[in-house]
């Protein structure tokens, strides 16, 4: 086994990170998925670029961005996930780990942790309320809470530079993350869920105000843009509004006039 595989197996056995077993099994060790991920993000990143991975979880996107030759600032507030990221990327000088949540202003906030499914841990109380009783979400339980530091995207830009691409995946807290951004990167993505569509609409409004003018979407984990042509925000909002509940989630991709990948 290579060093990464050995580290993953150790993380799965470590009581401090064993809750991440399902995520580690899903996101690592599948070369076909890695190749699909790399091909998709190669349109946004090239060697030498800087990327922000906001809501890095166990770092599969961080790994993808590194394979493309980009430097990565991985932002992750969950202690177990941060421990995993430190282990997996300890010897990689191209990865900087920021153990914090991203939000509208610096400070501290409570993070609701889903210990059985840490990938949906969230700082958004409205998101948890929307999940209650919703098809596909009824079994989710946020059964722990930690207080975490908050950093803004603007502060990250001050510290590390303007990224070529920002990925935001923070379970219904995406609008708060964007509220802390005043200097837009060329390309950005944010996750949406069909149980919390108003969050996505607020994100679109914010991004238009920041100068983003082209939008596309990928559903689920497909890493395939749904629309043949990029569309304005109003049409993207219509697309999201028309999605059936069963679509569940996806990522909206946004680009400004400064770059057309």
From TrEMBL:
| All copies of domain Methyltransferase FkbM, residue ranges | 53-181
Query: What protein name does the entry list?
Result: Methyltransferase, FkbM family
Against InterPro entries, the record matches this protein to:
FkbM_mtfrase, SAM-dependent_MTase, SAM-dependent_MTases_sf
Against NCBIfam families, the record matches this protein to: fkbM_fam
State one Pfam family annotation. Answer: Methyltransf_21
GO BP annotations listed = methylation
The Swiss-Prot or TrEMBL record annotates one GO molecular function as: methyltransferase activity
Query: Which Gene3D superfamilies has this protein been placed in?
Result: Vaccinia Virus protein VP39
The record's keywords, sorted A to Z, are:
Methyltransferase, Transferase
Protein origin, superkingdom:
Bacteria
